[in-house]
């Protein structure tokens, strides 16, 4: 039995990843779930993010999915390892859960000429040190600087991302990052919400700095994964269908989601527990 690929985020951010998945891998079916009722995850404890993410993964498995992408850096940083190493043994050894951090760290160093990169993410992602640890495996001589940007997700979730009021917090976190090193020439938006702020962020960056978003990187990596794992590819249905679920209000989700996804969508409400 084949089923859609599950795509999960705390809220809307994962739609920026799904948009690229749909672009690069249009033949597959996808189910998106945003845990909007409990977002943001970025300031929550390890235990809470793990518990919420595990509930979401179980929900996807109940829908029949065999492959789930955690399209959320915070969930990838705080829950993925436990789920892969502990929970899958009980939930189904034939199922797979993948994140967004590993594929990003495999290529990020290639963008930098000065060998100095900045990681901007939620407090949860930054405090987990997942990026410096993973980057050290692929680019051992890379200098990695991190900056938590706790105000960015609320600005984005509340539709303030393109308003003048957002400028203050965009500039503040960029200044704090460059205070750590003037040599940074590559910045990763290590939160799937942040692409909505990309235009504003760019306007505050020196011209020589490359701003990297994750959608296309994750999509390329998934394409490669499915090619290398025909047994998983066979379990993914391919009619080009999409379904969207939220743990909060479906109408509110539809309105906001179209901004992140770039086209109108129809959403359904679901409870996870
Ligand atoms: N979009 C999620 C991420 O990539 C986090 C947003 C949140 O704080 O819930 O980290």
Helix content: 40-55%
Query: What small molecules accompany the polymer chains?
Result: D-glutamic acid
Biggest β-sheet description:
6 strands, parallel
Let me know the number of strands. 10
What is the CATH topology assignment of the largest domain? Rossmann fold
Note poorly predicted spans. Answer: none
Number of domains: 2
The assigned CATH architecture of the largest domain is 3-Layer(aba) Sandwich
What is the H/E string? EHEHEHHEHEHHEHHEHEHHEHE
Total helical segments: 13
Name of the CATH class of the largest domain? Alpha Beta
| Rg calc | 18 Å
- SS class: alpha/beta
Termini separation (Å)? 25 Å
Taken from the alpha-carbon principal axes, the silhouette is globular
Determine the strand fraction and express it as a percent band: 15-25%
Query: Roughly what is the average pLDDT, rounded to an integer?
Result: 97
Strand arrangement across the biggest beta sheet = 4-3-1-2-9-10
Secondary-structure map with pairings?
Elements: E1 5-9, H1 14-24, E2 30-34, H2 46-62, E3 67-70, H3 73-78, H4 80-91, E4 96-98, H5 101-107, E5 116-121, H6 123-128, H7 130-138, E6 143-148, H8 152-157, H9 166-180, E7 186-189, H10 198-203, E8 210-212, H11 215-228, H12 230-233, E9 242-246, H13 250-261, E10 267-269
Parallel strand pairs: 1-2, 1-3, 2-9, 3-4, 5-6, 5-7, 7-8, 9-10
Helix pairs in contact: 1-11, 2-4, 5-7
